[in-house]
Specification:
Structural class: alpha/beta
Mean pLDDT: 95
Strand content: 15-25%
Shape: globular
Helix content: 40-55%
Bound molecules: 3-acetylpyridine adenine dinucleotide
Number of helices: 11
Low-confidence stretches: none
Distance between the termini: 39 Å
C-alpha cells in the first residue's frame, strides 16, 4: 500500500515539529511548503537525515510551489505571521486572512480531497476563512485548538493530583483564547468528575479555579517565557492526534474548531466543540446540553468568535 501524503503548509516552528512527528509515527510521506525559500527544503532534508537513526521510512520534500500539494491526503496549515509589537489584532487578521486566501486556493486546486487542519491564529476565524477560500466540504476542514487546550488542562490536573496524564480527561468548549470554556464537571480522573474530587479532598475549589485560569492563559504563559515566538511542541502533537484519527479512521472524540450549522444554537461559524474524527472527516458533532454559567460562558465565547468573523467579512467582503 502506498504511503499517504501529508502536506504541511507553513514550515516554521510548528511545521518543522509536525514533520518530525509524522516521521517518528510513520504516518506517511511529507511535503513541507513555505514562501521562505530554502526553509522547507532544509528542514525536510534535515529530518530525512534523522530517519536512519530513528528507523522510520518516509519520503520528505520541501517546496515553494503549490503544485507540491498534489493529491495530499491531509493538509496542516500553519502559514501566516505572528502578531508583532505595535500590530493591532485587525492588522494581524487582515494579513493572515490574505494568507488563508492563497492557501485555500492552493488546496482547492491541488488537494481538493484532503482533510484540512488549520492552526493559524486567530484560529476560529482563520479556519472559517480557509474553508470559504478552499470551498472544501465543512466536515473536511477543522481547526486545532481544543486538543491543545484540553491537553494543557489535563497536564495541570495530573500534576496537581500526582497521577498519570493518561488517566485524566478534560472537556473544553468554545473559541480558542481567553474565552474558552473548560467544563469542570465533565473533566475527570479515571472517570471521577472534578467536583467529586474536590468533595473527596483531593484539591480545593480555589486551586481548581487557578488551574482553569492557567489553562485559559496557557498560550500567553509560553509566549511570555519564549519571548520570540509561541508554543509549538504541544500544538504540533495536538494536530497530529487529529490527523492520525482521520488517517487511521480511529473515530476519536477530540475537541476541535468545527463548523456548526445549528448545533449549540450556532450557525455558519467555527467554534470549539467535541467531534468524532474518522475517515470521513468530522463524522459527528457531540452536542451536550449546556445550562447556567456554562451556557453563559459558551455564549460569550461564541460572541468573541463572531466578532472576529465579522471583522473578516468587513476586511474582505469580496474574498469570502
Ligand atoms: P512560524 O514559525 O512563524 O511559522 C509560520 C510560517 O508561515 C513561516 O515559516 C512563514 O514563512 C510561513 N508563511 C507566511 N506566509 C505564508 C504564506 N503566504 N504561504 C506559506 N507560508 C507562509 O509560526 P509557528 O509555526 O510558531 O505558528 C504558526 C501559526 O500557528 C501562528 O499563526 C500561530 O499563532 C499559530 N498557533 C496556533 C495555536 C493554536 O492553538 C490555535 C497554537 C500555537 C500557534
Amino acid at each position: 500500500m502506498a504511503r499517504d501524503k501529508i502536506a504541511l503548509i507553513g514550515s516554521g516552528q510548528i511545521g518543522g515539529t509536525l514533520a518530525h512527528l509524522i516521521g517518528l509515527k510513520e504516518l506517511g510521506d511529507v511535503v513541507m511548503f513555505d514562501i521562505a525559500e530554502g526553509v522547507p527544503q532544509g528542514k525536510a532534508l534535515d529530518i530525512a537525515q534523522s530517519s536512519p537513526v530513528d528507523g522510520f521510512d518516509a519520503h520528505y520534500t520541501g517546496a515553494n510551489s503549490y503544485e507540491a500539494l498534489d493529491n495530499a491526503k491531509v493538509c496542516i496549515v500553519t502559514a501566516g505571521v505572528p502578531r508583532k509589537p505595535g500590530m493591532s489584532r485587525d492588522d494581524l487578521l487582515s494579513i493572515n486572512l490574505k494568507v488563508m486566501e492563497q492557501v485555500g486556493a492552493g488546496i482547492k486546486k491541488y488537494a481538493p480531497d484532503a482533510f484540512v487542519i488549520c492552526i493559524t491564529n486567530p484560529l476560529d476565524a482563520m479556519v472559517w476563512a480557509l474553508q470559504k477560500a478552499s470551498g472544501l466540504p465543512h466536515k473536511k476542514v477543522v481547526g486545532m485548538a481544543g486538543v491543545l487546550d484540553s491537553s494543557r488542562f489535563r497536564y495541570f490536573l495530573a500534576d496537581e493530583f500526582n497521577v498519570s496524564v493518561e488517566d485524566v480527561t478534560a472537556f473544553v468548549l468554545g473559541g480558542h483564547g481567553d474565552t474558552m470554556v473548560p467544563l469542570v464537571k465533565y473533566s475527570t480522573v479515571a472517570g471521577i468528575p472534578l467536583p467529586d474530587l474536590v468533595k473527596m479532598g483531593w484539591t480545593s475549589q480555589a486551586r481548581l479555579d487557578e488551574i482553569v485560569d492557567r489553562t485559559r492563559n496557557g498560550g500567553a504563559e509560553i509566549v511570555n517565557l519564549l519571548k520570540t515566538g509561541s508554543a509549538f511542541y504541544a500544538p504540533a502533537a495536538s494536530a497530529i492526534a487529529m490527523a492520525e484519527s482521520y488517517l487511521r479512521d480511529k473515530k476519536r472524540v477530540l475537541a476541535s474548531a468545527a463548523y456548526l450549522n445549528g448545533e449549540y444554537g450556532v450557525k455558519d461559524m467555527y467554534v470549539g466543540v467535541p467531534v468524532v474524527i474518522g475517515a470521513k472527516g468530522v463524522e459527528r458533532v457531540v452536542e451536550i446540553e449546556l445550562a447556567g454559567k456554562d451556557r453563559e460562558a459558551f455564549d460569550k465565547s461564541v460572541g468573541a468568535v463572531q466578532g472576529l468573523v465579522d471583522a473578516c467579512k468587513k476586511i474582505a467582503p469580496d474574498l469570502l
